[in-house]
Amino acid sequence: MSDFRQRISGSRRTCLIALVGIAAILAAFVTTHPVFSYPDFIQDAVEPAQMSQRETGVPASVTIAQAITESSWGDKHIGEAYNYFGIKAFEMADGTIYVGPVAEGWVLANTTETINGKEEQIQARFRDYANMADSFTDHGYFLWENELYHPAFQYETEPREFARLIAAAGYATDPEYGDTLLSILEKYDLFQYDVPGEPPPGEDVPGIVVDDKDAGFEHGGTPKYWYELGVGYKRHSCWTNVTPSNEDDWARWTPLLSEPGIYEVSVYVPPLKATTKHAHYLVQHAGTENPVELSQIDHLKEWVSLGQYAFAAQGDEYIRLSDLTGEPIKSATIAFDAVRLVRVGEAPPQFDAALAGSPDIVIAYVGQTAEIRIEVRNTGLQTWRTDQVVLTSVKQPLNANETQALPAQTLPSSTVTWNIDIHAPDKPGVFKSEWRLKQADETFGPTLSAYLVVLPEGNSELEEKIRRKIEEWRQAGEQKIEELIKEIIKLIEREVQSFIEKLIEDLLRRLCGASALVLLGVLLFWWQRR
User: Fold this and answer.
1) What is the pLDDT of residue 450?
2) What is the distance between the alpha carbons of residues 374 and 283, in angstroms, rounded to a whole number?
3) Is a pLDDT exceeding 80 seen at residue 508?
4) Which end of the chain is more exposed for a tag (fewer CB within 10 A), N or C?
5) DSSP class of residue 25?
6) Parallel, antiparallel, or unpaired for β 389-395 and 429-439?
């Protein structure tokens, strides 16, 4: 009997020891080894937190402390959503779910909220991230996106005060949240991970930059509709809501250029509040305007080129943007950050020109009046004014006035057309009319040409042949015009030759003897003289 009892007691002791061992292992796993363990979680969190600090200004220590608190050392990051801060997704007025600039989407999850002093279980939408780094970056954006937390950013170098202020602003419903953050900051000495003296992003870029905090930036409209963010170039940008039809808020960047030239113009699109698809930039340069439409939401955190433009460096050139996008009101937001100009080439002359398209070719019959067209593009830096610029004849004015007034003021990159009345000579052929532009007694630009094709009167078949030749030439890509003119001259010569030969043959049939020979000699002499 005693033997049996002893065996039972031994078995119990063995079981108890085993159970205690298992319990100890489970307890150790639950309390010290969630998804990450200290200090593993902190080490994994340091780099994403520092990346966020460099971009948004949120101290890395505060980011790590919040991640520890919100996710229980990484154990509760909302399933596979990698959401370490409990950042929610919100339904917008139009029914869409806003997930911020980084998250891939959202998930529905249970959460505990303190409501009227009591803890309650509710379901809420939470942002879904691809990885830990995206969650940490979006945490910084989230704080800047909400004006409640803006006061904290006055203390980017004082993490204790930063943590206290975001807690006071209501980041969590737990009234002890601020004390919890401060305790974690101190206990684990998270201050050592803050990035000291790091410059904001975007300071080391080439070219001439005008930021929204620089003297060359100005904005107007209704002050209460202007908002600021701490993200973007040099960690700052402005934004407002779009409007569908009437401009209210606007901004203008005026670069200080030391020399004229061809400049590439780029704009920086910040990561927040740049949701418009129809931002209408206006580049004012060298007396002319070029509108450029840009979808900001497709270029977040990027420098985007608006193109290359000639700038005269005379102080009256700028880039402009307003809230007028044509989109429904409050359906999107438009951001204003930095503009950059990089000189990529020499400036064109103050006054220069180029023939727009191919030279004009006009067909007329002998003795008729006609009209030639000289279409010219202003390729210089200066505007052509009607009291300064004229078109002057160089050769073959064809009874036209040798000086033609400028029809209208012509901005750089714009075109102007002269329609000039002429009189066809009394013999067939091709006549080239040449012109030059003049400003203050100085000619500029290339020789500008137009061609008059003069045909024998009533020769419609020849006219049709020549028109077909001209059309074939244009469809072939407008090759050298000299070759076309040679072909036209040959057609006219063959036609005239054929006409003379037929005339002589007819006369010879009607006449005979010496009188025919005399007439033939007269005709040959006349033909040679022409």
Assistant:
1) 93
2) 29
3) no
4) N
5) H
6) antiparallel
